[in-house]
Amino acid sequence: MRSNDQKKILFKIILLLVFLWLVKAFIRTATPKHRGPFPDFIYEERDTFGRVITRDVRGWVIDEYLCDGKITDDFVLAHLNNPPNTPIYVYPMEIDEYVSSDIIMTGQYESQNVKTMIQYMKRFPNAVFLDLGAFVGSYSIAIAALGYKVVAVECLKSSVKRLYASMKEAGVSDRMSIIHNAISDIHERAVVETDPGNLGLTYVVQGKSEGTETVDVIVLDDFLEIFQFKQAIIKMDVHQYEDMVLNGANKFFKQVNVEAVLMEFVHHRDDTFDNDGKFIINFMESHGFEPDVPANIKQDYKKWTKSEILFKRSKPFS
């Protein structure tokens, strides 16, 4: 009798083990392969392609909520004209009167700056295009559609969802990664705010952790934990935080051969934020860059009239 009971118990254990093995096998085939013990964690660069990832207190993880792929009524499908007919999801014009409106009506936004970044990617085709403050992706989607590797960073959830939808619609998931974080020079939780009617003016309020929408703030050096960047082209538009991004990027600029940085500079010309303009100039010069401005005003950044300044490498990377 005891022997029969033991056989029954053993048989049930075997059935349970087989069942668990089948479940594990199903999960392994139904989800992308990861190099690590936890399926939602990111361990290597190749785990990031075609996904929305974020860095929080746990480390780098997949943001499943933001890559659910749902297209809602307020997703407007437009098309970029460079490259021609590239699909991109934007906002309705009534809630985003500048960026989305321009893309819907003309198929472009900041077209000359986009062309400049494309020219640099053609010169350095093995570089990654790092879009800091990607918004809906007028730079990222265009450059990924041309076949280049792209990492787009955005803090506003609704914009991240559009980036993900555009990435899928444009068929560039094999070479594009999306990061849902804000970037500065410290790690903290911050509030995300936007300008009514102008969602392109999205910004974070550091030192404030309670609000309608919050986000984890990281530093550019954190990217080196999972990305194996060798060469990069950077576009940086983070609404007055450009100096702070650089302050958290010393290791990045020492390890990665950055060939050019297109940076929003209009808020830093007057050194409004504790000599932030001077800090940016000194940082870029110390890492071998010079501004692409007329020679007679190169040393007087308060006279730079362009909203965005291109910093070009002037000394060899070492």
Automatic annotation (TrEMBL):
Keywords: Signal. The keyword Protein transport does not apply. The keyword Magnesium does not apply. Residues 1-25 form the signal peptide. It comes from the Eukaryota. Gene3D superfamilies: Vaccinia Virus protein VP39. InterPro entries: FkbM_mtfrase, SAM-dependent_MTase, SAM-dependent_MTases_sf. This is Methyltransferase FkbM domain-containing protein. It comes from Mytilus edulis.
